[in-house]
Please model this.
Amino acid sequence: MAKDKEFVKEITPQSEDFSRWYIDVIKKADLMDYSPVRGCIVFKPDGYELWEACQRELDRRFKETGHRNAYFPLLIPESFFQKEKEHVEGFNPELPWVTQIGDDPLEERLAVRPTSETIIGYMYSQWVQSYRDLPILINQWANVVRWEKRTLPFLRTSEFLWQEGHTAHATQQEAEEETTRMLGVYTDFCENVLAIPVIQGQKTPSEKFPGAVATYSLEAMMKDGKALQAATSHYLGDNFARGFDIQFLDRDNERKYAYTTSWGMTTRIIGAVIMVHGDDRGLQLPPRIAITQVMVIPIGPAKTRERVLPVAQDLVKVIKDAGVRVGIDASEDNSPGWKFNEYEMRGVPVRLEVGPRDLDQHQVVLVRRDTGEKEIVPIDQVANRVPDLLEEIQQAMFDRAKGYLQEHTKPAMTIEEIHTLVREQKSFALAGWCGDDACEAKVKEETGASSRNIPFAPPTTMTSCVVCQNEAKHTVWFARAY
Amino acid sequence: MAKDKEFVKEITPQSEDFSRWYIDVIKKADLMDYSPVRGCIVFKPDGYELWEACQRELDRRFKETGHRNAYFPLLIPESFFQKEKEHVEGFNPELPWVTQIGDDPLEERLAVRPTSETIIGYMYSQWVQSYRDLPILINQWANVVRWEKRTLPFLRTSEFLWQEGHTAHATQQEAEEETTRMLGVYTDFCENVLAIPVIQGQKTPSEKFPGAVATYSLEAMMKDGKALQAATSHYLGDNFARGFDIQFLDRDNERKYAYTTSWGMTTRIIGAVIMVHGDDRGLQLPPRIAITQVMVIPIGPAKTRERVLPVAQDLVKVIKDAGVRVGIDASEDNSPGWKFNEYEMRGVPVRLEVGPRDLDQHQVVLVRRDTGEKEIVPIDQVANRVPDLLEEIQQAMFDRAKGYLQEHTKPAMTIEEIHTLVREQKSFALAGWCGDDACEAKVKEETGASSRNIPFAPPTTMTSCVVCQNEAKHTVWFARAY
Model:
């Protein structure tokens, strides 16, 4: 892969300007490039590999929970969008329309899919006749387009990559269980693979998916205190089943509408990994998602190279055989110091240094990316120690992010308190809400914070609405959000 | 997955109507469904799994040859198509144009990508400054759209899935080597994974990729004697480099244009697997691509079920531990006979039958899908025998397809002979060609056979043009084609 040999400026410190820090890091780590198509990015190999790692982990979990992959058409006839009223209103302004093939106009416009409930709903109506045809448990890996006004690499792009699960069930209960199950799968993935703690909860009506009965989300906290919606799982009731006529003959010989769900996670999760774990030196990748988990760097004067290099190469083999993704940078073009900085910037969890003095003492040095701690390990212990160390780092990164989240989540009794929390203290604000859209809108207007979700397990239950002070129906997380 | 419980008619015999046989098989094996979008199909889970298996095998080979995956935008500005003249003329009639976002017209139309040379060429021009930035070796897994007038599931659909490799090199020689290398990777995949023998060669100028200097192809023979282009690899010279200004400063301090290549394989390869190996009983999947390689089916009267089932389940475990993809159908809804037919139709390479009498004799029966041969194997030998048997089947399927190809490839001295070969003998015709487009066109006009490629290793060298009888410059395969 071509390396950017231009002068790359230093990374702006997070404390100085978090947004510039983010752009500096993703450019310097060569994860993406801007494209000539408005709001669309190029996923460069180092960025795309992160998505491939996410795909592998998610795909395995989807299959373990009984889902299979399929693929549905990209282009969706305009009439399909009319069949679910909220859905068309929600997506219409962002839809790219194909109106011509070559020089010939199309009879019916085709939308580039923003999501696939409509076309999949139509197909399910063809496939479902009897209760024996249910459930249908399908996932699709695909690209989707939503023409966004304000875009930010990975976090909000006009085209993005995602997976969208679409299931149909004979009963409401089964569909609701599916919605919950998949929120659990996403939680497991975020917390145990990406080391990102998440808050599970339900979206308020104004924030739910257009056409859903209920939307559940995972909300994660970035290091600037903003929220990022990491995944959503929608219980669609029979809304789409009625729109597309997904009916089946039940055991009791009655024709009924199916209950459907959908759930998705997108390439924006790459942005979350960067913003949760990154620091002023650059990326910091949790070991389970890191493409290279350990980088071996031979050190010492040139004349010792002949002695050190074969040992370094043996170590690569030994570490690889221990099931670890390991690389080596033995190039003579760059100094060890340059390499240390480079792989720290790229977020490699562990660096292994080996030089002539280490050989004399039958040892190597392991350096953690997360804490900078150095550890001297006997050469014959490397294969045992490295996998354990990676697990320790994985756990430490999660604990650190969890601690950060806990320190930055506080209750608020008034709009002013929300304002202070989200604007000055980089925090989420937990507040009571009466259930009135107007009160929710007022919080946003006055603080810039939107309702994130109504948590399943709030740390405290708030009793009065943060706006009107009437009795609270819900306890809600408010935060500024990506 | 929902099963189609409707009455599914018998499979039309290949000899009666090959096209109907093909559609019957893919519908009955539940590989696809027609979609409401013209010319686009739904890849159902059983069909999509075949593509996933192809992806795994190809992706590994691409990475082993030094390539990395990336992702570029779906929508391509109209002006990009103007930069390579042949390219725009070749693709323009099939391009879907996005002209509006929501209700607002776009200033510049955006094409839904038919292939990505243009947008990738533009990006490479940004990334390449020096010879040190070369080569760039990138592959993309993506969907593309080409609005086809006549479509056929998998083989020719308006939207299809594929991979497209795009590389840039400092020298012509290196780019040409890359083109050849990737044709070799495809050949390895087709022959050793899909058990499909292929003919390597170069396309004639009228059949080459719009904008390429040279297009190389793999041509495979379907059981009806038609050709299917299994993969292409294009040497693009500096055509796209000049169009998009991919220039670099070389070692000698001169600015030069890069040389580029592209190469692709699509979901049409699924159709090839079906048409090369399938028979009147249905699919026949080569073991290396089969999702289920062995299906275990307990047999015998209901009262023996308690004895047989635990053994069958143990066998599943033992076979799985031997690294084989194995399933079991122990359902009581269907008879063993029904199951035998079902998994034969679905192309599972080996069936394992186990019943009470087998238990008495500590044995099972293995049945090959390809030959129908039965083999009695002692239970404690199953884990050893099954992997070997799968390899034997893989090899036998390739040999059988290779034999078929050899029997159906013959030289032709006249247009009439080509006509007879391709129309009556289900064959490819090897013929001399003077190099004149008009002679090539005349063959097509009079026989329906197009030039497939100029083989690297023709079985015979033809000396006079099959049309004008002047001296032949090339020896060409002609065939009717999908």
The CA atoms of residues 409 and 428 of chain A lie 5 Å apart. Chain A touches chain B through 65 residues (CB under 8 Å). Chain A has 14 helices and 23 strands.
